[in-house]
Design brief:
Shape: globular
Bound molecules: thymidine-5'-phosphate, aspartic acid
Strand content: 35-45%
Number of helices: 6
Order of helices and strands: EEEEEHEEEHEEHHEEEHH
Distance between the termini: 23 Å
CATH class of the largest domain: Alpha Beta
Number of domains: 2
Number of strands: 13
Radius of gyration: 17 Å
CATH superfamily of the largest domain: ATP-grasp fold, B domain
Oligomer: single chain
Length: 236
C-alpha cells in the first residue's frame, strides 16, 4: 500500500490517500488537544499507544459483528482504513455522569445512569461541538432517520461489548464518543476508539485513566493510557 498526499490534518491524527481510492492511512500523532484545540501538547508515545489501542478495540468490535473502518495496523503510528463519507455528528453514550453532562444539568459526577443516555453533538470546533437533537440531523441533512437509527443501534452495541471488556480489566466505561460514516451504502464505525475519546475510571479507586488527566492537568497521562492497554492485554 503506497502512502500518497495528506488529505486532512485533524487535531490528533492525519489522513493520507493511498494508491487504492477506497483505502486511507490514518497517522496517529503525539499531539494531544482539549477544549476544541485550545490546549495542545505533544505527549511522547501517545500516537503509538492510541494507534495500537484503537486497532485492538476495533478488532474486538468487528468480531462482535460491528462494521468498522479498520483494516490493518501498518506501523507503530499508522493503520489502514476504509474510506468513509463521514457524518459530522458525534454519538455519545454515558453510563455514569461526567464532563459536560455534569456542567449542563448540575448533577453529581459519578452518578450511575440507568438506562445509559444517548446524546448527539455536531462535530464543529469553531462552534465548540454544540449539543443537538435528531431533528437537527434530519433538517440539515447530516443523516437520514434510517442512518441515525443504525448509528444509535451500533453505539449501544459498542457500549455492551466494551462495558464487558473494560469491566474484566477492572475499569468503568464512564462515557465515550463515536463517529460514523458511509461505506458502500452501509453505516460503518469510523474515527478511533482510544482513551482520548472516552472516560475510563479504575473500578476500585475511581482514578481517572483517560484524557481527563490531560484536560484537568492531573499528570501521568500516557502512563495511565499504557496501564489501561496493559490491563486489556493490548500489545504495545
Ligand atoms: P463531554 O462530557 O465533554 O460531552 O464528552 C463526553 C465523552 O465524549 C467524553 O468521553 C469525551 C468524548 N468526546 C470527545 O472525545 N470529543 C468530542 O468532541 C466530544 C463532544 C466528546
Ligand atoms: N478532542 C476535542 C478537542 O481537542 C475535545 C476534547 O477532548 O476536549 O478539543
Amino acid at each position: 500500500m503506497e502512502k500518497r498526499t495528506e488529505l486532512y490534518r485533524g487535531k490528533a491524527k492525519s489522513v493520507f490517500m493511498t494508491d487504492d481510492p477506497d483505502r486511507l492511512i490514518l497517522l496517529f500523532r503525539n499531539d494531544t488537544s482539549a477544549f476544541d484545540g485550545q490546549k495542545v501538547e505533544q505527549l511522547d508515545r501517545k500516537g503509538m499507544v492510541n494507534n495500537k489501542f484503537n486497532a485492538f478495540i476495533m478488532q474486538k468490535l468487528e468480531a462482535a459483528g460491528i462494521p468498522t473502518q479498520f483494516d490493518a495496523l501498518l506501523s507503530d503510528n499508522e493503520c489502514l482504513v476504509k474510506k468513509l463519507d463521514m457524518i459530522p455528528v458525534e454519538c455519545v453514550v454515558r453510563n455514569y455522569a461526567a464532563g459536560s453532562l455534569v456542567r449542563r444539568l448540575g448533577i453529581e459526577e459519578g452518578l450511575q445512569l440507568t438506562p445509559p443516555t444517548f446524546e448527539l453533538f455536531l462535530k464543529n470546533d469553531a462552534l465548540h461541538d454544540p449539543f443537538i437533537n435528531e431533528s437537527h440531523v434530519y433538517a440539515f441533512g447530516w443523516a437520514t432517520p434510517e442512518q441515525l437509527a443504525r448509528m444509535k443501534e451500533l453505539t449501544f452495541k459498542v457500549n455492551d461489548v466494551l462495558n464487558a471488556l473494560f469491566d474484566d480489566a477492572g475499569l468503568m466505561l464512564v462515557d465515550f464518543k463515536l463517529e460514523f460514516g458511509v461505506h458502500q451504502g452501509e453505516i460503518v464505525l469510523g474515527d478511533e476508539f482510544s482513551p482520548d475519546g472516552c472516560r475510563l475510571w479504575d473500578k476500585a479507586t475511581r482514578k481517572k485513566m483517560d484524557k481527563d488527566r490531560f484536560r484537568q492537568g492531573l499528570g501521568n497521562v500516557i502512563e495511565a493510557y499504557e496501564e489501561v492497554a496493559q490491563r486489556l492485554g493490548v500489545p504495545l
